[in-house]
Write a sequence for this structure.
């Protein structure tokens, strides 16, 4: 795997390094030793799947407050999405900044999202499926969220939101 730090320190684009032959390819999608060697969290507590029927489906922006902060590794296994993170770490030089990347079933990229980063995505095509490896168990009382169109961040989404949960469109404006 290849690890490339994003403009937001601690967050990485992780690329598969597939071995191709006439059958297709084989690649490691997770290796505890490689993540540890890169100085990244490597304890996985949950593996989550998000299936999305329609292009324009918005999920997020979610994170969990300490002491239940989650680190995530996100990969698109079918379809395509635009994945976004926001640094909400108090005291961070990049606090309030966001980063977005297109993840597709074909581009062999994943996004490593550290604790205290809000995370969300919009699907770019119908029938998009996403997998998450997560370092903490979901803890409802620690869940936090940021509205996808919160003016504090001015995220540039590549298409209009067509489907969104009531909860995700109802988060209050972000305050420190």
């Amino acid at each position: 795997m290849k690890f490339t730090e994003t403009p937001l320190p601690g967050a990485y684009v992780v690329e598969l390094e597939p071995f191709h032959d006439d059958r297709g390819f084989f690649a490691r999608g997770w290796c505890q030793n490689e993540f540890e060697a890169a100085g990244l969290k490597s304890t996985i507590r949950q593996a989550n799947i998000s299936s999305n029927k329609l292009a324009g489906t918005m999920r997020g922006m979610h994170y969990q407050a300490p002491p239940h902060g989650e680190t995530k590794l996100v990969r698109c296994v079918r379809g395509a999405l635009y994945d976004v993170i926001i640094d909400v770490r108090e005291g961070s030089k990049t606090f309030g900044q966001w980063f977005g990347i297109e993840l597709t079933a074909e581009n062999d990229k994943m996004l490593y999202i550290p604790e205290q980063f809000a995370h969300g995505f919009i699907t770019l095509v119908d029938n998009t499926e996403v997998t998450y490896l997560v370092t903490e168990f979901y803890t409802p009382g620690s869940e936090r969220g940021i509205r996808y169109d919160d003016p504090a961040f001015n995220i540039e989404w590549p298409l209009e939101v067509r489907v969104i949960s009531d909860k995700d469109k109802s988060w209050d404006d972000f305050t420190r």
